[in-house]
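Retro notes - structure team

What went well: the batch runner handled both jobs without manual restarts.
What didn't: labels got mixed up in the shared folder, which is why I'm recording both outputs here explicitly, each with its sequence directly above its tokens.

Job 1
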Amino acid sequence: MDEIMTGASGEVSLDIELFGKYELGRLIGVGAFAKVYHGRNVRTGQSVAIKAVSKQKGR
């Protein structure tokens, strides 16, 4: 996954689509090495959690 651009509040537009399968939503958690976003499966509508691991901290 490429870097994800967020606003000052950490919110991400639902217009971002990952792999043509998921829509990326709001930031729901932050840890030492990753951020977790709410996502939605485009085909089924099922809610999912999407973890975005930092390239710098994940080494």
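Job 2
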Amino acid sequence: MSSLAPVKDTPSKTQRLQQIADVIRPYSQSPFVTSNFSIVSSSNSQTEHVIYFAITRWPMWTVAGIFLASSIVPPNPLRPPLMYRLGFGAIFSGAGYVISTGDVYNGTGIATAWSLTYLFLNLRKSLKPPLSGLSLALSGAALASSTLYGAEYFLLQEKDS
């Protein structure tokens, strides 16, 4: 007789879209937001402004694109190895795909874990002189990704349960 821990319910895609609508409400007078956009009311806090980007695939695919595009730059001792750049780019693409399928909880977990792994492996080397612009850009992209998706994974989803 094994006891299984209860699985945390993740919010539905409709609930997350309603939260996005709450974030967009202050900007609804903008010409970029159509007038037939339905807005559902709920609590409005400062952390809700992060939700729009944290549950979409585009920031993750942007980070993946940066990593994959950096593979055209020739190897150099100051830069991360080519296999790191290709491997992390592929993993970040996969995390974006998971988010795009609607599994935000697992997608943000993958993005956070692998972004922190990249930082663990490369941050110290990228900050040592002589500095490499590519190495700093990749570390900055991984730091931004871990911050954005980590906030969604660890902080914002706690409020949904």
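One thing worth noting from job 2: Residues 100 and 119 are 24 Å apart (CA to CA).
We'll revisit the folder naming next retro.
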